[in-house]
Design brief:
205 residues, 9 helices, 83% helix, mainly alpha
Amino acid sequence: MAISDTSLFAESFVTVLVVMDPVGNVPVFLALTRDRTTAQRRRAAGEACIVAAGVVFLFALFGQEILHLLGISLASLEVAGGMVLVLAALSLLYPRVGETEQDARAVNVAFVPLGTPLLAGPGAIAAVMVYIRRTSGLSQVLIVLAAVAGVLILLFLVLRFADRLARALTDNGIELLSRIVGLLLAAIAIQLVATGALFWARHGV
């Protein structure tokens, strides 16, 4: 039985929203942009959402073809994403000695690791691809894309106003938060690698 348009929109919206986790990513966003001004942090929010949108929509429309053409599995994406997050976690746990504020700001974290793989990671990509496969006709494909767009707009709004939380935490609070987030990111990274490796063990690379 074909899924109704309303159910398809609601299910895809809620699933992608949970996977991208806008509220849960606020501490990560603040930690990664701790050396930015308010204006730079807001610009980073927009850039991260644009990157995430580009990645998610690209895989929504051409994901199967891209993975098949390159011979890449979703498990491989999980392992690769986990490795990228390990680097991000290490940079939060152990800031580079001698790094100047100008050097830190020169690195655009809105693209990597924030835009991808944190926001548009293997989980979001897989979820969108699954719902696209469940569609029947162009109209339902557009419904799924509209649901994803809605999540991205909400994500932008949450990150856009994260600076209010930053003011409440103060610089010392954000510095402490960056260490905690770094540890959590490391755990997420290991989980991604473990999930991909477990898939390989069961089904082959």
